[in-house]
Design goal:
With about 140 residues, this protein is α+β, with helices and mostly antiparallel strands. It has a domain at about 25-120: Sandwich (Immunoglobulin-like). The chain is built from two helices and nine strands; from the N terminus they run αβββββββββα. The strands form two sheets. The protein has a five-stranded mixed sheet, with no helix packed on it. Strands 1-3-7-6 form a four-stranded antiparallel sheet, with no helix packed on it.
Amino acid sequence: MRLQIMRLVLSLSLLCIGAAASLSAQVPLMHKVEPDSGKIGSVLQIHGVFLGKTKVDEVYLTDHTFDMKVKVLGQSEDVIEFRIPPSVKPGRLQLLVKTTGHEPMLLEQPVFITVEEPKETLEATTTTPPANGTH
């Protein structure tokens, strides 16, 4: 009898561990972004697992002070395509997803992008005005 109870407890424990592992395995996870940098308006692709519409509701860029929602252009189980929004500031930003379901969660992802400064801003800061108004 004691051996049967031990087997039952062991079987139930393994069943619970297996169920927990399968639930956690379906959390959206981003692996990389291509390209990993771009200017405002650039289209980037996120590659990962469980990125489909049944798992990911919204995508954000975050600097850990402000989260900015991006426009998702396309979405499948392993790729999300998005455009860098016009009001984002240049710099290094992390990706964040809002999950679907009754209790949605915001999950920081282990991938970053670099938003480049607009070209006209770079030219304005790197050119020096002529001395004494001469050309």
